[in-house]
Amino acid sequence: MEPESTVTTCYRHPKVESYVRCTRCDRYICPDCMREASVGHQCVECVKEGARSVRQGRTVVGGRIAATPLVTSVLIGLNVVAYLAEVVRPEILDRFAMLTARLVGPDGGYYVYQPGHPSDLHAEGVVAGQWERLLTGGFLHLPPTEGTFGLLHIVMNMFALWQLGRAVEPMLGRARYIALYLLSTLGGSVFVLLLSDAHAESVGASGAIFGLGAAYYVLARRVGADMRPVNRFMVFLLLWLVLSAGLTSWQGHLGGLLTGAAVTLAYAYVPRGPRRAVLQVAACAGVLMLLAVVAYARVSDLTSGGPAL
Confidence band (pLDDT; 50, 70, 90) for 277? Predict the structure, then answer.
């Protein structure tokens, strides 16, 4: 009498016959559960377990590798949405543009800020506690028919953001890239707060873009790239800062450039090791605290009767 043959089935699909074993756990697997391995096949669970145990690649500054410039695309989207919103509702620009201080009269007119202003006037700007303007102004741009550039303002900025962002974001990783962008925006606004006319509005992503430009230069030196094209780019960036000073906010450009350089130097040159991320976070927190102290000191000076420039 011949022995009855034993039918082996897939451990995940008991109704499917299978004669192939996972080379890692030795369980039977069907074609749907097979994943090709260096030797034989593995089951789905073993492949997932193996992926968790593989050390993830890191960027030169220790960030997670980002294959696509996702954050850059999101930032461009936010700028475009904000631009469309301000075109539909122009009052958004007045409320959220970077502004140090001004007075608004009962007639809706604007007046130079003075700390002891009459009661029928009210203050607007950072001096009035609207600290969010330091950040929101970096996501707004000139209306289509205003200023020297009009619609070109956002077009040029978004083109520059795309070109720089897709180079810098993969080198930093997404978290460090976001921190760099926002700190550069704040740095540009704080320099506007310090050096611009108090009643002048300032908008645009250029502070952050200049910060990305500084980051591009620092990272290129850090990885030992061919510096000739990078140096040409930096010469162009600095020339634009100088030559456009009468048409744009050079204070915001300079603040973004210096802040971006400081943050990226911390990213790139803190010692390697388990504490590198902690040191980088501490450096970013230090930059943020310095900007906050400077901004607070400037506002305190204005409210106590200091020069409004």
Answer: very high
Distance CA 170, CA 309 (A): 41
Question: Residue with structure tokens 């502004």?
Answer: 99
pLDDT at 118 over 50: yes
Max mean pLDDT range (26-30, 65-69, 107-111, 174-178)? 174-178
Percent helix, strand, coil in the chain, to 5, is 55, 5, 35
Angle, helices 250-269/206-223, rounded to nearest 10 degrees: 30
- Tell me how crowded residue 51 is: count the other CB atoms within 10 A of its CB: 9
Contact assessment for residue 23 and residue 41, using Cβ atoms and an 8 Å cutoff:
yes
Q: Whole-angstrom distance between the N-terminal and C-terminal Cα of the chain?
A: 107
Write down the pLDDT at residue 219. Answer: 93
Other beta carbons less than 10 A from residue 289's beta carbon: 10
Q: How far apart are the C-alpha atoms of 52 and 247, rounded to whole Å?
A: 53
| Contact between 149 and 142 (Cβ < 8 Å) | yes
What does the alpha-carbon distance between residue 242 and residue 214 come to, in Å, rounded to a whole number? 16
* pTM, two decimal places: 0.80
Residue whose pair of structure tokens reads 């377990």 in the numeric block: 49
Which pLDDT value is given to residue 54? 52
Token pair of 130, please? 């609207």
